[in-house]
């Protein structure tokens, strides 16, 4: 059994072929019936053409009969009643050159079997444009649309490319825990994991006793695998994680999910500059991979979702990223303060509007902003000599703003402990993390790429909820 992607790459040599997939469209002409079949192996459907001739009717086309049994007077093709959009089918015939534009081959079909019907009265995916909002409600069927299918193929290819990128550079893949007792970002936006009987607790009015909880302490879904990845970088030198992460932020935006996939490389003996170079190389490699291996999907996004996306990715994959410190970025923003709803000042967190202004208007491309004020960054970042800024780096891109966040890590045990205490956290909770600095400490750096933001960037999709099969966001956990 061949996939449609493989069939479409064959020469039109009249070989016998069988096609399996779902009907996208059926067009009935006087003498011909065209059935477009898609199996998701690629964006293109294969056209299967049936000749329909009444018995005794002459063949006036002068062309060769399409199927071996379809010469005038032989079989009459009558499309079955249940041959409709969404039905699954098996179609057999010969692979012949296609007279239609945009396809080299088609099936001169001889027979067809409807495997599973999709009654048009109830099947929600008819041949018309559906809004992303509507498709999210039927997320179990939306993979059958061109857009969701193309997104899924880009996701799959880039997930693999991420492994290829790191594996070819000596990074080992580390599986970090999903349930954890520590807050890796120190930001408090965590989902609690518990087996305590919340209803019984509420009835009793007693405070929860976590020593009786499943793990004997309070636990959460991880917001990042970084801290555990650091422990392995301090042994294997170069590691990366690629797993699900969870944030209970109530950000109802087009770029936030409550459950998303993150890639986090961590490398010993890497300084911030090495980290920045790695991030740039990483993104460019992923852009080139998508351009090369998802060309047809990207052509679809270019013509239907975001015009110019291919040109944009092409130029990005060869140009240098721009660099700027936070302080320089702030000067740029303050010169243009009247443009912003949130007035920028040194020390403020960069808002989405600021990030977009910097990349879209000032730089017109990817920008790495470094050396942020320590107050707005996580506790583990390495302090600069000025005592005010840390060795942080955010990669900002047009349309999205932040796509990568990372830093050089504080490798000095006293410095790190001071930061933990200063933020009101308990050094005892992080004693294992401090051990990395107490024993054989090394300079090291890493970053996190939000996988869905990458997919958004590469496909041009406007809403992050449409680049993951089943989005989880505030008030949304269907399927
Ligand atoms: O900037 P963040 O919070 O950094 C970390 O978690 C570090 N531990 C990474 C590291 O240095 N190893 O998150 C990293 C990236 C962001 O740049 C963004 O792309 C993505 O993760 N991200 C989200 N993506 C979707 N929904 C959310 N709620 C996200 N929060 C962060
Ligand atoms: Mg960040």
How would you characterize this protein structure?
With 479 residues, the protein is α+β, with helices and mostly antiparallel strands. The protein folds into 2 domains: 113 residues, Nucleic acid-binding proteins (OB fold (Dihydrolipoamide Acetyltransferase, E2P)), CATH 2.40.50.140; 325 residues, BirA Bifunctional Protein, domain 2 (2-Layer Sandwich), CATH 3.30.930. 29% of the residues lie in helices and 23% in strands. The chain is built from 13 helices and 16 strands. The strands form 3 sheets. An 8-stranded mixed β-sheet has the order 6-10-11-16-15-14-13-12, with helices on both faces. Strands 1-2-3-5-4 form a 5-stranded mixed barrel. Helix 3 crosses helix 6 and helix 6 crosses helix 8. The longest helix is centred in the first third of the chain and has 22 residues. It is elongated and about 85 Å long. The site of magnesium ion has 2 residues, from strand 15.
List the helices and strands and how they pair.
Elements: H1 4-8, E1 16-28, E2 32-38, E3 46-51, E4 88-97, E5 105-116, H2 132-137, H3 146-167, E6 172-173, E7 179-180, E8 192-193, H4 198-204, E9 219-221, H5 226-236, E10 238-246, E11 259-268, H6 272-293, H7 295-304, H8 309-316, E12 322-325, H9 326-335, H10 352-363, E13 367-373, E14 389-397, E15 401-408, H11 413-422, H12 431-438, E16 444-450, H13 451-459
Parallel strand pairs: 3-5, 6-10, 12-13
Antiparallel strand pairs: 1-2, 1-4, 2-3, 4-5, 7-9, 8-9, 10-11, 11-16, 13-14, 14-15, 15-16
Helix pairs in contact: 3-6, 3-7, 3-13, 6-8
The protein binds 4-amino-1,4-dioxobutan-2-aminium adenosine-5'-monophosphate (4AD) and magnesium ion.
